[in-house]
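Ligand: magnesium ion. Inputs:
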Amino acid sequence: MSSPWSKVSAEPVQTANLADIMSEQYAHRLHDKELKEQQLRQEKQMQPVATPTATPSYSNVAETSASASSSDAGAWEDYSMLLNLEEGQQQKEQLPGDILKLLQDEAESDAVIARMLQSQFDHEYNEELRRIERQQNKQSKVTVTLNKYLRSGDAEFLHDTEADEDYEEDELAHRKHDWDRFETNEKMLDAIPKCGFKLDKEGEMITKHDPQLCGVRNAQRVMSFPPEFPTGDGACFDMKLSNKVFNQLKAYSRRGRADRKEKVATAEMGVDAATRLLLYKLINNQILEQINGIISTGKEAVILHANSDASYTGTNEHGHGNGVLMPAELLPKECAIKVFKTTLNEFKQRDRYIKDDYRFKDRFSKQNHRVIINMWAEKEMHNLMRMQSIGLNVPDVVVLKKHVLVMRFIGDNHNAAPKLKDARLNAAELSCAYEEIVAAMHKLYNEAKLVHADLSEYNILWYEGKCWFIDVAQSVEPEHPSGLEFLMRDCANIVQFFERRGLPNIYTKEQLFEFITALNAETHNAAMLERIHTRGASISQATVPNQLECPDELKPLEYPFELAWEKSQQDREAAAALRQLELSEDEAEQEQADEQLEHVEEAKRKLNNDNKNKNTAKCVQ
Ligand code: ADP
Ligand code: MG
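Predicted complex:
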């Protein structure tokens, strides 16, 4: 073997002048010479290669490929060069016919091997799919096919019988059928007239409830579930779903939707897309200038901080104030936006506050969730306004848009006033706060005719040395069936807070209740529990939402005040009876003696009369 590092033997270089080089004839001569040299080289190299058969069978193609692989690697390189390169292509055109044929045959045999192998692979792959399909479907009523994934390789190599051709045709038809199935099914259903049935060609009756048709339609409908709900691609599935299965899937997909909505709702500033739109509108209408961020995210609401728009004039281009409840000059600089959560998980616990509130009674039934949430916001607005009208410290309402309530921000410079539970109060302030709350509760009940129903140190803010009451969506009137129960709970919360803070000389919860309502707390409790204890009603019976369904004897008392009235009447009668008993014994005896005397006198008079009558009778005889 010669070393690559050895000195290269220098061949004599032919010299030519520029005119020669430029000459076309000279160029042709050189080209021909080069081709001849190449041809000779080819002939020498091709001699040991066996001549391939014109139409190779699978076995001898394999042999050919084996022998070819063992032949000189240089020859293969040349083939590829000849077949693939443009340069080679030009040269190929100039090759003698027999060499060209030889090359083409070789290339063909190579392609044949590749196609056969591919075909073999496809066949085995399809067999495997069929096997999986059979295994998965087994006895199941809902079957799936994997036709969509079948490979349509070169069947000619493996299936050359008539049966195989049929198989191919079937396969194609089957696939086409799958694609068209939904459409055909839909047409058939549409073709059923209003009477609900139709006769087919064989005279069989097809109704619109036909399980076959409905099954396919249900399968089709599953495809239009939300994209996040994975249903697979049913276009090639021979899927039929019974109504029962479909309805369950639908219910399941909806359940998912609620979760998804909740996720979306908490994604951006804790509000969903619909709410964001409302907020943008408030900005667009020049009520708000910007929304700065979240103050609080509670179970039921998200509170945002916003700046009002200084350019707000009270009217917009349409000439009205966009629902703003105050003149432009009173619009607070800083606003709190209460966005009621539109998911109902929390709402369910609160519905007892609204469904029994007669103000919302007619509107409560048969409403969808969003409308009910809007009613909550409306209820908060009404309650705030009512409380403000009697002079209680509550945030002024700016505007209400569906479930978004804009009100005055209690605090300064983006700093919300602390809740009572977090406020640092000295003894005097604590006492002041107590007095203020007790007075406010009394006023709320007696003048505004409201019970807060969620009053505690969490829903009272401490600002500028005063208590401010918030979160009044659940407040109810005392007539509400549970109104007094809620009031008692409020009393308990307040008393407990001040007790824990060590404020002396405060009411007990019963005393506070009595101070507010002038009702004896025990009497009231009797009223609340009467149905359960005295009349033997179960709690579920006594609190049945539709009281009309309640048996008469268990119906709630119309109004607890009536009970108090009844009770006081009874008390008065009892007192009168007692007074009677307390009369002095002497008086009683005297009376008794007089009575007895009277009886004696009476008896005497009777006796005299009788004697007189007897004497007269004797005289007559
Ligand atoms: P939730 O129903 O979530 O309890 P609230 O109305 O009680 O809703 O508000 C939650 C919190 O948001 C309050 O505790 C308070 O800190 C703050 N907040 C609510 N309204 C205002 C307001 N007008 N100004 C300042 N802060 C407020
Ligand atoms: Mg609250």
